Amino acid sequence: MIQQWFATMNEMLDDLIIRYPDATGEERKQLADEWNVLKTLSDVMIESWLQLEDKMGVYREMQQQQNVNEPNEQFCHPFLKGHGYFRLQMFSQASQHLEEVVHRYPDFISARLFLALSQMHLQQWATAQHHLQLVVAVTDDNKLQAIAFNALGCIQAIYARLDYACGYFRKALEYEPAFEDAHSNLESCQQGKEQLELQFCSTEWQDIVPI
């Protein structure tokens, strides 16, 4: 349809170009009227095209944003591998694959949480704490909040900041009162044991993290 429209416009313009040199005053006035009609049609077409381009640009931006924020099949594979290594307690390999996913998809909360827990097992406390703080800042899932706050409490306990640790454990229990890991960790810190027995995230709670 568009090609036919342009073909017709070109034919009309060709006719004007051929007729104009030999046209008299009255004929040139008629040709000018025809030209104005074609010019108006052309302006309308250009304006409509620009509006269409604007909408196409909006869609492209939405599509690109979705591609950035939503894991696709290509990156679900390394996440599943990383999660599998985590369950096998092969935390170095788990961390490697999960870092790949988090780098590409910063909002993939489950990957970031398992990465933080892997790093805790590797005693990479500072980077684990960074990821956990991001998790609690963006997720609205009570269980994920509880797991992340409990893990943050464990890091503070390892640094012997028991008051801060207890605060994090209580925060975890605010989100999930039945969270046994947080209960156990809070009790251990309150008793002031020299050898703390900390639970980062038991298998039962690992299973509730969406994958």
Automatic annotation (TrEMBL):
* Name of the protein described by the UniProt record: Tetratricopeptide repeat protein
Cross-referenced Gene3D superfamilies, in alphabetical order? Tetratricopeptide repeat domain
What species was this sequence derived from?
Candidatus Cohnella colombiensis
InterPro entries recorded for this chain? Answer: TPR-like_helical_dom_sf
